[in-house]
Amino acid sequence: MAAFKQKSQFYVNISMPAQTNVRKKRSIRLWPIVVLGLLAIIGGSGYYFYNNYVSGNKWKPLLQQKLKELVLRSSDSLYRIEYSDFDLNITSGNATLSDFKLIPDTVVYQKLVAQHKAPDNLFTLSVKKLSIKNVGAKKAYQEKILNIDNITIDNPDLTIVNKRYSFNDTVKVGKPKTPYEVIKKIFKQLRIDSISLKDISVNYINKSNPVTKQTALKHLDIDISDVVIDSLSSTDTSRFYYTKGVNITLHDYKVATPDGLYNIALKQIYFSTSERKIILDKVSFTPRYKTDEFYRRMGESGDIFTLKFKQIGINDIDLQRFLRDQKLYAGTMNIADASVKIYSNNAIKGKKSIKIGKDPHQSLQKVALDMKLNRLNIKNTDISYSETDAETLATGIIDFKNTSGYFLNVTNDADAKRRNHFMAAHIKTTFMDAAPFAVNFKFDLTDKKGAFNYSGSLGAFDGTILDKLVKPLAMVHVKSADVKRLDFNVDANNYGGKGNLQFYYNNLNVQLLKKVDGKAELQNQGLISKVANALIIDNDNPDKKGNFRPGPIDLQREATTSFFSFLYKALLDGLKPSVGFDKKTENTVNKVVAKVSTLVDKFNQLKAERKQRKEARQAKRDSIAKSKIKTP
Fold it and tell me: In this structure, what is the dihedral angle of CA atoms 532, 535, 541, 546, given to the nearest 10 degrees?
Protein backbone atom coordinates (compact mmCIF):
# COMPACT_ATOMS: atom_id res chain seq x y z
CA MET A 1 0.00 0.00 0.00
CA ALA A 2 2.86 2.37 0.74
CA ALA A 3 4.09 1.89 -2.78
CA PHE A 4 2.07 4.64 -4.44
CA LYS A 5 3.04 8.30 -4.03
CA GLN A 6 5.69 9.78 -6.37
CA LYS A 7 4.46 11.44 -9.55
CA SER A 8 5.34 9.94 -12.93
CA GLN A 9 5.24 11.56 -16.32
CA PHE A 10 2.89 9.21 -18.07
CA TYR A 11 -0.68 8.16 -17.16
CA VAL A 12 0.00 6.21 -13.98
CA ASN A 13 0.92 7.44 -10.50
CA ILE A 14 3.56 5.50 -8.61
CA SER A 15 3.69 6.39 -4.91
CA MET A 16 6.66 6.42 -2.57
CA PRO A 17 6.84 6.60 1.22
CA ALA A 18 6.64 10.18 2.46
CA GLN A 19 9.92 12.04 2.41
CA THR A 20 11.07 15.33 3.84
CA ASN A 21 9.68 18.50 2.39
CA VAL A 22 13.09 19.52 1.08
CA ARG A 23 13.07 16.86 -1.56
CA LYS A 24 12.25 18.33 -4.96
CA LYS A 25 9.71 16.62 -7.17
CA ARG A 26 11.24 14.94 -10.21
CA SER A 27 9.18 13.45 -13.02
CA ILE A 28 9.99 9.79 -13.57
CA ARG A 29 9.26 8.30 -16.98
CA LEU A 30 7.08 5.25 -16.59
CA TRP A 31 8.40 3.44 -19.65
CA PRO A 32 6.07 0.43 -19.62
CA ILE A 33 3.18 2.80 -20.29
CA VAL A 34 5.14 4.89 -22.81
CA VAL A 35 5.88 1.72 -24.74
CA LEU A 36 2.16 1.03 -25.11
CA GLY A 37 1.83 4.35 -26.92
CA LEU A 38 4.83 3.54 -29.08
CA LEU A 39 3.34 0.18 -30.00
CA ALA A 40 0.20 1.95 -31.11
CA ILE A 41 2.29 4.37 -33.17
CA ILE A 42 4.14 1.58 -34.89
CA GLY A 43 0.88 -0.26 -35.50
CA GLY A 44 -0.40 2.78 -37.40
CA SER A 45 2.87 3.15 -39.23
CA GLY A 46 2.34 -0.34 -40.60
CA TYR A 47 0.20 1.02 -43.37
CA TYR A 48 3.07 3.15 -44.60
CA PHE A 49 5.49 0.24 -44.62
CA TYR A 50 2.88 -1.96 -46.25
CA ASN A 51 2.51 0.49 -49.17
CA ASN A 52 6.23 0.91 -49.62
CA TYR A 53 7.50 -2.61 -48.99
CA VAL A 54 4.59 -4.93 -49.75
CA SER A 55 6.55 -6.81 -52.37
CA GLY A 56 8.53 -9.62 -50.84
CA ASN A 57 6.91 -8.97 -47.39
CA LYS A 58 9.67 -6.49 -46.53
CA TRP A 59 7.37 -4.37 -44.33
CA LYS A 60 7.20 -6.72 -41.35
CA PRO A 61 10.92 -6.94 -40.48
CA LEU A 62 11.33 -3.23 -41.15
CA LEU A 63 8.40 -2.43 -38.88
CA GLN A 64 9.84 -4.59 -36.11
CA GLN A 65 13.21 -2.92 -36.54
CA LYS A 66 11.57 0.53 -36.38
CA LEU A 67 9.72 -0.43 -33.21
CA LYS A 68 12.90 -1.46 -31.42
CA GLU A 69 14.73 1.65 -32.62
CA LEU A 70 11.99 3.92 -31.31
CA VAL A 71 12.06 2.31 -27.88
CA LEU A 72 15.83 2.67 -27.66
CA ARG A 73 15.76 6.28 -28.86
CA SER A 74 12.82 7.33 -26.65
CA SER A 75 14.45 5.87 -23.54
CA ASP A 76 17.98 7.15 -24.28
CA SER A 77 19.04 3.50 -24.72
CA LEU A 78 18.03 2.66 -21.15
CA TYR A 79 15.42 0.10 -22.27
CA ARG A 80 15.12 -2.49 -25.01
CA ILE A 81 12.24 -4.77 -25.98
CA GLU A 82 11.95 -8.45 -26.84
CA TYR A 83 9.02 -10.61 -27.97
CA SER A 84 8.40 -14.07 -29.41
CA ASP A 85 5.91 -13.09 -32.13
CA PHE A 86 4.55 -9.90 -33.73
CA ASP A 87 1.51 -10.31 -35.94
CA LEU A 88 -0.01 -7.35 -37.79
CA ASN A 89 -3.01 -7.57 -40.13
CA ILE A 90 -3.09 -4.37 -42.16
CA THR A 91 -6.55 -5.07 -43.57
CA SER A 92 -8.31 -5.51 -40.22
CA GLY A 93 -6.03 -3.14 -38.33
CA ASN A 94 -5.39 -5.72 -35.60
CA ALA A 95 -1.99 -6.44 -34.09
CA THR A 96 -0.77 -8.96 -31.51
CA LEU A 97 2.49 -9.13 -29.62
CA SER A 98 3.28 -12.31 -27.67
CA ASP A 99 5.68 -12.73 -24.75
CA PHE A 100 6.64 -9.07 -24.81
CA LYS A 101 9.41 -7.88 -22.48
CA LEU A 102 10.77 -4.45 -21.59
CA ILE A 103 14.30 -4.90 -20.26
CA PRO A 104 16.49 -2.20 -18.69
CA ASP A 105 20.16 -2.01 -19.64
CA THR A 106 21.98 -1.99 -16.29
CA VAL A 107 25.24 -0.80 -17.89
CA VAL A 108 23.50 2.25 -19.33
CA TYR A 109 21.78 2.80 -15.99
CA GLN A 110 25.08 2.83 -14.11
CA LYS A 111 26.47 5.36 -16.59
CA LEU A 112 23.43 7.55 -15.93
CA VAL A 113 24.07 7.20 -12.20
CA ALA A 114 27.67 8.34 -12.70
CA GLN A 115 26.41 11.31 -14.75
CA HIS A 116 23.80 12.17 -12.08
CA LYS A 117 21.03 11.65 -14.64
CA ALA A 118 19.58 8.34 -13.50
CA PRO A 119 15.94 8.16 -12.43
CA ASP A 120 15.08 6.84 -8.96
CA ASN A 121 12.94 4.08 -10.45
CA LEU A 122 13.94 1.28 -12.80
CA PHE A 123 11.26 -0.84 -14.50
CA THR A 124 11.14 -4.38 -15.86
CA LEU A 125 7.97 -5.47 -17.67
CA SER A 126 6.83 -8.74 -19.16
CA VAL A 127 3.49 -9.27 -20.89
CA LYS A 128 2.05 -12.60 -21.97
CA LYS A 129 -0.06 -11.10 -24.75
CA LEU A 130 -0.67 -7.59 -26.03
CA SER A 131 -3.51 -7.03 -28.50
CA ILE A 132 -4.29 -3.90 -30.52
CA LYS A 133 -7.69 -3.80 -32.23
CA ASN A 134 -8.88 -1.79 -35.21
CA VAL A 135 -5.95 0.47 -35.94
CA GLY A 136 -6.98 3.16 -38.45
CA ALA A 137 -3.91 2.64 -40.59
CA LYS A 138 -5.21 4.46 -43.67
CA LYS A 139 -6.07 7.62 -41.76
CA ALA A 140 -2.79 7.36 -39.93
CA TYR A 141 -0.95 7.28 -43.25
CA GLN A 142 -2.98 9.97 -45.01
CA GLU A 143 -3.77 12.43 -42.20
CA LYS A 144 -1.19 11.53 -39.53
CA ILE A 145 -4.07 10.85 -37.13
CA LEU A 146 -3.95 7.44 -35.45
CA ASN A 147 -7.18 6.01 -34.01
CA ILE A 148 -7.24 2.72 -32.10
CA ASP A 149 -10.32 1.04 -30.65
CA ASN A 150 -8.67 -0.97 -27.92
CA ILE A 151 -5.38 -2.13 -26.46
CA THR A 152 -5.62 -5.19 -24.20
CA ILE A 153 -2.70 -6.42 -22.11
CA ASP A 154 -2.96 -9.82 -20.42
CA ASN A 155 -0.99 -10.81 -17.33
CA PRO A 156 1.57 -8.01 -17.22
CA ASP A 157 4.28 -8.49 -14.61
CA LEU A 158 5.96 -5.25 -13.54
CA THR A 159 8.99 -4.93 -11.26
CA ILE A 160 9.90 -1.48 -9.93
CA VAL A 161 13.28 -1.02 -8.26
CA ASN A 162 13.48 2.22 -6.30
CA LYS A 163 16.72 3.76 -5.13
CA ARG A 164 16.67 7.42 -4.22
CA TYR A 165 19.69 9.47 -5.27
CA SER A 166 20.70 12.71 -3.59
CA PHE A 167 21.31 14.40 -6.94
CA ASN A 168 17.61 14.06 -7.65
CA ASP A 169 16.94 15.95 -4.41
CA THR A 170 19.07 18.97 -5.18
CA VAL A 171 19.72 19.10 -8.91
CA LYS A 172 17.21 20.84 -11.13
CA VAL A 173 16.61 18.35 -13.94
CA GLY A 174 15.49 19.32 -17.40
CA LYS A 175 11.83 19.20 -18.27
CA PRO A 176 11.05 15.72 -19.65
CA LYS A 177 9.47 15.29 -23.04
CA THR A 178 5.71 15.25 -23.17
CA PRO A 179 3.94 12.34 -24.90
CA TYR A 180 3.09 14.66 -27.78
CA GLU A 181 6.75 15.61 -28.23
CA VAL A 182 7.54 11.89 -28.48
CA ILE A 183 5.01 11.23 -31.28
CA LYS A 184 4.75 14.54 -33.15
CA LYS A 185 7.32 13.61 -35.83
CA ILE A 186 5.07 10.71 -36.83
CA PHE A 187 1.53 11.75 -35.87
CA LYS A 188 -0.24 14.97 -35.04
CA GLN A 189 -2.82 13.09 -32.96
CA LEU A 190 -3.13 9.72 -31.20
CA ARG A 191 -6.49 8.54 -29.86
CA ILE A 192 -7.16 5.25 -28.08
CA ASP A 193 -10.75 4.49 -27.03
CA SER A 194 -9.75 2.10 -24.26
CA ILE A 195 -6.75 0.36 -22.73
CA SER A 196 -7.29 -2.69 -20.51
CA LEU A 197 -4.59 -4.22 -18.34
CA LYS A 198 -5.81 -7.46 -16.75
CA ASP A 199 -4.43 -9.37 -13.78
CA ILE A 200 -1.31 -7.26 -13.26
CA SER A 201 1.44 -8.29 -10.87
CA VAL A 202 3.56 -5.49 -9.39
CA ASN A 203 6.70 -6.08 -7.35
CA TYR A 204 8.03 -2.93 -5.68
CA ILE A 205 11.61 -3.21 -4.37
CA ASN A 206 12.80 -0.35 -2.17
CA LYS A 207 16.61 -0.16 -2.02
CA SER A 208 16.72 3.37 -0.63
CA ASN A 209 17.29 2.22 2.94
CA PRO A 210 19.96 -0.03 4.49
CA VAL A 211 17.49 -2.92 4.54
CA THR A 212 15.84 -3.74 1.21
CA LYS A 213 12.06 -4.03 1.43
CA GLN A 214 9.65 -5.55 -1.04
CA THR A 215 5.94 -4.97 -1.58
CA ALA A 216 4.01 -7.20 -3.96
CA LEU A 217 0.62 -6.53 -5.52
CA LYS A 218 -1.21 -9.19 -7.48
CA HIS A 219 -4.55 -9.41 -9.28
CA LEU A 220 -4.56 -5.74 -10.26
CA ASP A 221 -6.77 -4.49 -13.14
CA ILE A 222 -6.41 -1.11 -14.85
CA ASP A 223 -8.91 0.31 -17.35
CA ILE A 224 -8.04 3.54 -19.18
CA SER A 225 -10.65 5.32 -21.28
CA ASP A 226 -10.42 7.78 -24.17
CA VAL A 227 -6.72 8.58 -24.43
CA VAL A 228 -5.95 11.62 -26.60
CA ILE A 229 -2.44 12.91 -27.28
CA ASP A 230 -2.11 16.01 -29.44
CA SER A 231 -0.83 19.56 -29.20
CA LEU A 232 -3.73 20.67 -26.96
CA SER A 233 -4.54 17.66 -24.76
CA SER A 234 -1.89 18.46 -22.14
CA THR A 235 -3.80 21.64 -21.25
CA ASP A 236 -7.25 20.03 -21.23
CA THR A 237 -8.35 20.34 -17.58
CA SER A 238 -11.19 17.84 -18.10
CA ARG A 239 -8.61 15.13 -18.66
CA PHE A 240 -6.45 13.18 -16.24
CA TYR A 241 -3.04 12.70 -17.83
CA TYR A 242 -4.49 12.73 -21.37
CA THR A 243 -7.35 10.38 -20.44
CA LYS A 244 -11.02 10.79 -19.61
CA GLY A 245 -10.54 8.34 -16.76
CA VAL A 246 -8.43 5.63 -15.19
CA ASN A 247 -10.07 2.89 -13.14
CA ILE A 248 -7.84 0.69 -10.98
CA THR A 249 -9.12 -2.44 -9.23
CA LEU A 250 -7.02 -4.54 -6.86
CA HIS A 251 -8.40 -7.93 -5.79
CA ASP A 252 -7.67 -9.92 -2.61
CA TYR A 253 -4.91 -7.80 -1.15
CA LYS A 254 -3.19 -9.11 1.98
CA VAL A 255 -0.17 -7.84 3.88
CA ALA A 256 1.31 -7.97 7.38
CA THR A 257 1.98 -4.74 9.25
CA PRO A 258 5.68 -3.73 9.53
CA ASP A 259 5.80 -4.85 13.18
CA GLY A 260 4.46 -8.28 12.19
CA LEU A 261 1.64 -8.19 14.75
CA TYR A 262 -1.38 -7.68 12.48
CA ASN A 263 -2.73 -8.81 9.13
CA ILE A 264 -4.38 -6.34 6.78
CA ALA A 265 -6.75 -7.82 4.21
CA LEU A 266 -8.99 -6.24 1.58
CA LYS A 267 -11.37 -8.04 -0.74
CA GLN A 268 -11.16 -5.26 -3.31
CA ILE A 269 -9.77 -1.76 -3.81
CA TYR A 270 -11.39 0.36 -6.51
CA PHE A 271 -10.00 3.73 -7.63
CA SER A 272 -11.56 5.92 -10.31
CA THR A 273 -10.05 9.18 -11.56
CA SER A 274 -13.22 10.17 -13.45
CA GLU A 275 -15.38 9.61 -10.35
CA ARG A 276 -12.60 10.91 -8.06
CA LYS A 277 -13.17 8.20 -5.48
CA ILE A 278 -11.65 5.16 -3.79
CA ILE A 279 -13.75 2.26 -2.48
CA LEU A 280 -12.32 -0.43 -0.17
CA ASP A 281 -14.49 -3.54 0.25
CA LYS A 282 -14.34 -5.96 3.18
CA VAL A 283 -11.37 -4.48 5.00
CA SER A 284 -9.96 -6.23 8.07
CA PHE A 285 -7.17 -5.43 10.52
CA THR A 286 -6.72 -8.46 12.77
CA PRO A 287 -4.09 -9.79 15.23
CA ARG A 288 -1.85 -12.52 13.84
CA TYR A 289 -1.55 -14.28 17.21
CA LYS A 290 -3.62 -15.28 20.20
CA THR A 291 -3.64 -12.89 23.14
CA ASP A 292 -0.77 -14.34 25.23
CA GLU A 293 1.50 -14.78 22.22
CA PHE A 294 0.60 -11.32 20.93
CA TYR A 295 1.69 -9.67 24.20
CA ARG A 296 4.85 -11.79 24.29
CA ARG A 297 5.83 -10.64 20.81
CA MET A 298 4.84 -7.03 21.51
CA GLY A 299 7.03 -7.06 24.62
CA GLU A 300 4.74 -4.83 26.65
CA SER A 301 1.13 -4.32 27.65
CA GLY A 302 -1.20 -2.30 25.45
CA ASP A 303 -4.34 -2.34 23.36
CA ILE A 304 -5.08 -5.10 20.87
CA PHE A 305 -7.29 -4.05 17.96
CA THR A 306 -9.61 -6.14 15.79
CA LEU A 307 -11.17 -4.01 13.06
CA LYS A 308 -13.54 -5.08 10.29
CA PHE A 309 -15.24 -2.82 7.74
CA LYS A 310 -17.77 -3.85 5.13
CA GLN A 311 -16.89 -0.83 3.01
CA ILE A 312 -14.80 2.34 3.18
CA GLY A 313 -15.34 4.99 0.52
CA ILE A 314 -13.38 8.21 -0.11
CA ASN A 315 -15.09 10.73 -2.42
CA ASP A 316 -14.24 14.03 -4.14
CA ILE A 317 -10.48 13.44 -4.16
CA ASP A 318 -8.37 16.38 -5.30
CA LEU A 319 -6.28 14.48 -7.86
CA GLN A 320 -4.17 17.43 -8.96
CA ARG A 321 -3.14 18.18 -5.38
CA PHE A 322 -2.34 14.50 -4.84
CA LEU A 323 -0.17 14.34 -7.96
CA ARG A 324 1.46 17.75 -7.49
CA ASP A 325 1.98 17.80 -3.71
CA GLN A 326 1.43 14.14 -2.68
CA LYS A 327 -1.37 15.25 -0.33
CA LEU A 328 -4.69 13.46 0.00
CA TYR A 329 -7.40 16.12 0.10
CA ALA A 330 -10.92 14.72 -0.17
CA GLY A 331 -14.50 15.70 0.54
CA THR A 332 -15.86 12.74 2.49
CA MET A 333 -14.92 9.33 3.78
CA ASN A 334 -17.79 6.92 4.45
CA ILE A 335 -17.46 3.93 6.78
CA ALA A 336 -20.39 1.51 6.93
CA ASP A 337 -21.23 -1.70 8.80
CA ALA A 338 -18.02 -1.86 10.81
CA SER A 339 -16.93 -3.79 13.89
CA VAL A 340 -14.30 -2.30 16.22
CA LYS A 341 -12.98 -4.35 19.15
CA ILE A 342 -10.32 -3.09 21.54
CA TYR A 343 -8.85 -5.25 24.31
CA SER A 344 -6.38 -4.35 27.06
CA ASN A 345 -4.90 -6.65 29.71
CA ASN A 346 -3.58 -4.78 32.76
CA ALA A 347 -2.45 -8.05 34.33
CA ILE A 348 0.40 -8.46 31.84
CA LYS A 349 3.71 -8.47 33.70
CA GLY A 350 6.74 -6.48 32.67
CA LYS A 351 7.01 -3.26 30.73
CA LYS A 352 3.86 -1.14 30.43
CA SER A 353 3.13 0.64 27.18
CA ILE A 354 3.36 4.45 27.48
CA LYS A 355 0.28 6.11 26.01
CA ILE A 356 1.39 9.76 26.14
CA GLY A 357 1.17 11.21 22.63
CA LYS A 358 -0.81 8.23 21.29
CA ASP A 359 -4.41 9.45 21.52
CA PRO A 360 -6.34 9.17 18.22
CA HIS A 361 -5.88 12.78 17.12
CA GLN A 362 -2.17 12.62 17.98
CA SER A 363 -1.68 9.34 16.09
CA LEU A 364 -3.33 10.98 13.09
CA GLN A 365 -0.53 13.57 13.04
CA LYS A 366 2.05 10.80 12.65
CA VAL A 367 0.52 9.28 9.50
CA ALA A 368 3.11 9.52 6.71
CA LEU A 369 0.64 10.69 4.06
CA ASP A 370 -0.43 14.33 4.44
CA MET A 371 -4.21 14.34 4.30
CA LYS A 372 -7.39 16.33 4.89
CA LEU A 373 -10.92 14.95 4.93
CA ASN A 374 -13.67 17.54 5.17
CA ARG A 375 -15.98 14.97 6.71
CA LEU A 376 -15.77 11.36 7.88
CA ASN A 377 -19.15 9.61 8.17
CA ILE A 378 -19.73 6.51 10.29
CA LYS A 379 -22.84 4.37 9.93
CA ASN A 380 -24.06 1.22 11.69
CA THR A 381 -20.81 0.46 13.53
CA ASP A 382 -20.42 -1.70 16.65
CA ILE A 383 -17.68 -0.74 19.11
CA SER A 384 -16.54 -2.86 22.06
CA TYR A 385 -13.89 -2.08 24.66
CA SER A 386 -12.83 -4.77 27.14
CA GLU A 387 -10.21 -4.61 29.87
CA THR A 388 -8.77 -7.24 32.19
CA ASP A 389 -8.12 -5.95 35.71
CA ALA A 390 -4.71 -6.56 37.25
CA GLU A 391 -6.16 -7.37 40.69
CA THR A 392 -9.37 -9.29 39.98
CA LEU A 393 -8.09 -10.87 36.73
CA ALA A 394 -11.67 -10.46 35.48
CA THR A 395 -12.59 -8.68 32.26
CA GLY A 396 -14.93 -5.71 32.09
CA ILE A 397 -16.79 -4.91 28.88
CA ILE A 398 -18.42 -1.76 27.54
CA ASP A 399 -20.36 -1.93 24.26
CA PHE A 400 -21.70 0.66 21.83
CA LYS A 401 -24.09 -0.75 19.24
CA ASN A 402 -25.33 0.73 15.97
CA THR A 403 -22.98 3.71 16.17
CA SER A 404 -23.43 6.49 13.65
CA GLY A 405 -22.06 10.01 13.36
CA TYR A 406 -19.44 12.14 11.71
CA PHE A 407 -16.01 13.77 12.14
CA LEU A 408 -15.13 17.17 10.70
CA ASN A 409 -11.71 18.45 9.57
CA VAL A 410 -9.82 15.15 9.81
CA THR A 411 -6.32 16.30 8.95
CA ASN A 412 -2.60 16.19 9.65
CA ASP A 413 -1.71 18.73 6.98
CA ALA A 414 0.12 21.83 8.24
CA ASP A 415 -1.66 24.24 5.87
CA ALA A 416 -5.08 22.88 6.82
CA LYS A 417 -4.28 23.12 10.54
CA ARG A 418 -3.24 26.74 10.19
CA ARG A 419 -6.75 27.46 8.91
CA ASN A 420 -8.49 25.29 11.51
CA HIS A 421 -6.65 23.29 14.16
CA PHE A 422 -9.70 21.57 15.67
CA MET A 423 -11.20 18.23 14.68
CA ALA A 424 -14.78 17.72 15.87
CA ALA A 425 -16.86 14.54 16.20
CA HIS A 426 -20.56 14.02 16.84
CA ILE A 427 -21.56 10.46 17.66
CA LYS A 428 -24.87 8.73 18.45
CA THR A 429 -24.98 5.13 19.62
CA THR A 430 -26.66 2.61 21.96
CA PHE A 431 -24.89 2.08 25.27
CA MET A 432 -24.65 -1.56 26.41
CA ASP A 433 -27.52 -2.35 24.02
CA ALA A 434 -29.85 -0.61 26.50
CA ALA A 435 -29.81 3.21 26.33
CA PRO A 436 -29.35 6.01 23.78
CA PHE A 437 -25.97 7.69 24.11
CA ALA A 438 -24.74 10.86 22.38
CA VAL A 439 -21.17 12.13 22.70
CA ASN A 440 -19.29 15.04 21.12
CA PHE A 441 -15.52 15.41 20.85
CA LYS A 442 -13.37 18.44 20.08
CA PHE A 443 -9.70 17.62 19.47
CA ASP A 444 -6.93 20.22 19.36
CA LEU A 445 -4.67 18.96 16.56
CA THR A 446 -1.74 21.22 17.47
CA ASP A 447 -1.67 21.10 21.28
CA LYS A 448 1.52 19.42 22.53
CA LYS A 449 -0.33 17.87 25.49
CA GLY A 450 -3.04 16.42 23.26
CA ALA A 451 -5.90 18.57 24.56
CA PHE A 452 -9.45 17.47 23.82
CA ASN A 453 -12.96 17.87 25.20
CA TYR A 454 -15.74 15.31 25.34
CA SER A 455 -19.31 15.91 26.40
CA GLY A 456 -22.59 14.08 26.04
CA SER A 457 -25.66 12.53 27.56
CA LEU A 458 -26.87 9.02 28.35
CA GLY A 459 -30.57 8.12 28.44
CA ALA A 460 -32.60 5.98 30.85
CA PHE A 461 -31.73 2.32 31.45
CA ASP A 462 -31.65 -0.46 34.04
CA GLY A 463 -28.45 0.16 35.99
CA THR A 464 -27.83 -3.53 36.68
CA ILE A 465 -26.31 -3.85 33.20
CA LEU A 466 -23.35 -1.83 34.53
CA ASP A 467 -22.22 -5.02 36.27
CA LYS A 468 -20.40 -6.01 33.07
CA LEU A 469 -18.11 -3.04 33.63
CA VAL A 470 -17.96 -2.13 37.34
CA LYS A 471 -18.00 -5.65 38.82
CA PRO A 472 -14.67 -6.79 37.36
CA LEU A 473 -12.98 -3.37 37.32
CA ALA A 474 -14.34 -1.65 40.45
CA MET A 475 -15.39 -4.72 42.51
CA VAL A 476 -18.94 -3.39 42.86
CA HIS A 477 -22.09 -5.39 42.16
CA VAL A 478 -25.11 -3.26 41.22
CA LYS A 479 -28.14 -4.96 42.80
CA SER A 480 -30.57 -2.28 41.61
CA ALA A 481 -30.52 1.15 39.95
CA ASP A 482 -33.05 3.04 37.85
CA VAL A 483 -30.89 5.39 35.80
CA LYS A 484 -32.84 8.39 34.49
CA ARG A 485 -30.10 10.38 32.75
CA LEU A 486 -26.39 11.10 32.82
CA ASP A 487 -24.80 14.29 31.43
CA PHE A 488 -21.07 15.07 31.35
CA ASN A 489 -18.51 17.58 30.08
CA VAL A 490 -14.77 16.94 30.45
CA ASP A 491 -11.66 18.86 29.38
CA ALA A 492 -8.76 16.42 29.11
CA ASN A 493 -5.29 15.75 27.72
CA ASN A 494 -2.48 13.19 28.05
CA TYR A 495 -2.10 13.91 31.75
CA GLY A 496 -5.58 14.20 33.21
CA GLY A 497 -9.11 15.48 32.98
CA LYS A 498 -11.37 17.97 34.74
CA GLY A 499 -15.06 18.53 34.34
CA ASN A 500 -18.47 17.73 35.76
CA LEU A 501 -21.04 14.98 35.65
CA GLN A 502 -24.76 15.02 36.48
CA PHE A 503 -26.19 11.61 37.38
CA TYR A 504 -29.96 11.25 37.86
CA TYR A 505 -31.14 7.93 39.35
CA ASN A 506 -33.43 6.13 41.84
CA ASN A 507 -33.32 2.94 43.94
CA LEU A 508 -29.54 2.53 43.94
CA ASN A 509 -28.37 -0.52 45.89
CA VAL A 510 -24.88 -1.96 45.54
CA GLN A 511 -22.87 -4.77 47.01
CA LEU A 512 -19.16 -4.34 47.63
CA LEU A 513 -16.91 -7.22 46.61
CA LYS A 514 -13.38 -8.34 47.37
CA LYS A 515 -10.77 -10.62 45.91
CA VAL A 516 -9.88 -13.59 48.14
CA ASP A 517 -6.78 -15.66 47.48
CA GLY A 518 -7.65 -19.13 46.29
CA LYS A 519 -11.15 -18.10 45.18
CA ALA A 520 -11.89 -17.68 41.48
CA GLU A 521 -15.03 -15.60 42.04
CA LEU A 522 -15.17 -12.23 43.80
CA GLN A 523 -16.54 -12.58 47.33
CA ASN A 524 -19.32 -10.51 48.91
CA GLN A 525 -18.57 -8.07 51.72
CA GLY A 526 -21.99 -8.46 53.27
CA LEU A 527 -21.71 -6.39 56.46
CA ILE A 528 -19.67 -3.63 54.80
CA SER A 529 -22.14 -3.48 51.89
CA LYS A 530 -25.03 -3.04 54.33
CA VAL A 531 -23.16 -0.26 56.12
CA ALA A 532 -22.35 1.44 52.79
CA ASN A 533 -25.96 1.30 51.54
CA ALA A 534 -27.40 2.41 54.87
CA LEU A 535 -25.02 5.19 55.85
CA ILE A 536 -23.02 6.32 52.79
CA ILE A 537 -24.56 5.65 49.40
CA ASP A 538 -27.63 7.74 48.57
CA ASN A 539 -30.46 5.77 47.00
CA ASP A 540 -31.72 8.67 44.89
CA ASN A 541 -30.35 11.72 43.10
CA PRO A 542 -31.96 14.20 43.59
CA ASP A 543 -32.82 12.95 47.07
CA LYS A 544 -36.34 13.02 48.56
CA LYS A 545 -35.83 16.65 49.61
CA GLY A 546 -34.94 17.66 46.06
CA ASN A 547 -31.24 18.15 46.74
CA PHE A 548 -29.06 17.25 43.76
CA ARG A 549 -25.48 16.00 44.14
CA PRO A 550 -23.17 17.02 41.26
CA GLY A 551 -20.26 14.83 40.19
CA PRO A 552 -17.07 16.89 39.86
CA ILE A 553 -14.32 15.20 37.83
CA ASP A 554 -10.66 15.73 38.62
CA LEU A 555 -8.60 12.72 37.61
CA GLN A 556 -4.89 12.42 36.95
CA ARG A 557 -4.13 10.12 34.05
CA GLU A 558 -1.44 7.51 34.42
CA ALA A 559 1.02 7.41 31.54
CA THR A 560 0.03 3.80 30.79
CA THR A 561 -3.72 4.47 30.61
CA SER A 562 -5.10 4.21 27.08
CA PHE A 563 -7.42 6.78 25.54
CA PHE A 564 -10.54 4.60 25.76
CA SER A 565 -9.76 3.45 29.30
CA PHE A 566 -9.30 7.05 30.43
CA LEU A 567 -12.66 8.13 28.98
CA TYR A 568 -14.70 5.85 31.21
CA LYS A 569 -12.40 6.16 34.24
CA ALA A 570 -12.89 9.93 34.24
CA LEU A 571 -16.67 9.43 34.18
CA LEU A 572 -16.37 6.90 37.00
CA ASP A 573 -14.49 9.55 38.97
CA GLY A 574 -17.58 11.78 38.70
CA LEU A 575 -20.03 8.98 39.50
CA LYS A 576 -18.59 8.45 42.98
CA PRO A 577 -19.54 11.86 44.44
CA SER A 578 -22.87 11.65 42.58
CA VAL A 579 -23.86 8.65 44.71
CA GLY A 580 -22.52 10.25 47.90
CA PHE A 581 -19.12 8.60 47.73
CA ASP A 582 -16.94 11.72 47.45
CA LYS A 583 -13.24 11.79 48.38
CA LYS A 584 -13.92 12.79 51.99
CA THR A 585 -16.50 10.04 52.38
CA GLU A 586 -14.20 7.58 50.62
CA ASN A 587 -11.47 8.24 53.20
CA THR A 588 -13.99 7.80 56.01
CA VAL A 589 -15.29 4.61 54.44
CA ASN A 590 -11.79 3.22 54.09
CA LYS A 591 -11.21 3.81 57.81
CA VAL A 592 -14.61 2.30 58.68
CA VAL A 593 -13.96 -0.64 56.37
CA ALA A 594 -10.59 -1.19 58.02
CA LYS A 595 -12.18 -1.12 61.49
CA VAL A 596 -15.11 -3.28 60.44
CA SER A 597 -12.76 -5.68 58.72
CA THR A 598 -10.73 -5.92 61.95
CA LEU A 599 -13.89 -6.54 63.97
CA VAL A 600 -15.11 -9.08 61.45
CA ASP A 601 -11.77 -10.83 61.50
CA LYS A 602 -11.81 -10.91 65.33
CA PHE A 603 -15.42 -12.11 65.33
CA ASN A 604 -14.58 -14.85 62.83
CA GLN A 605 -11.53 -15.80 64.90
CA LEU A 606 -13.61 -16.00 68.12
CA LYS A 607 -16.26 -17.96 66.27
CA ALA A 608 -13.65 -20.40 64.98
CA GLU A 609 -12.09 -20.76 68.46
CA ARG A 610 -15.54 -21.32 70.03
CA LYS A 611 -16.29 -23.96 67.42
CA GLN A 612 -12.94 -25.58 68.06
CA ARG A 613 -13.58 -25.69 71.89
CA LYS A 614 -17.05 -27.08 71.30
CA GLU A 615 -15.67 -29.81 69.06
CA ALA A 616 -12.98 -30.58 71.67
CA ARG A 617 -15.63 -30.89 74.49
CA GLN A 618 -17.76 -33.11 72.28
CA ALA A 619 -14.77 -35.31 71.47
CA LYS A 620 -14.00 -35.60 75.20
CA ARG A 621 -17.62 -36.59 76.00
CA ASP A 622 -17.56 -39.17 73.23
CA SER A 623 -14.32 -40.58 74.58
CA ILE A 624 -15.74 -40.88 78.15
CA ALA A 625 -18.88 -42.53 76.84
CA LYS A 626 -16.88 -45.13 74.93
CA SER A 627 -14.70 -45.92 77.97
CA LYS A 628 -17.82 -46.51 80.15
CA ILE A 629 -19.20 -48.99 77.66
CA LYS A 630 -15.97 -51.00 77.70
CA THR A 631 -15.83 -51.06 81.59
CA PRO A 632 -17.59 -54.27 83.03
Answer: 180
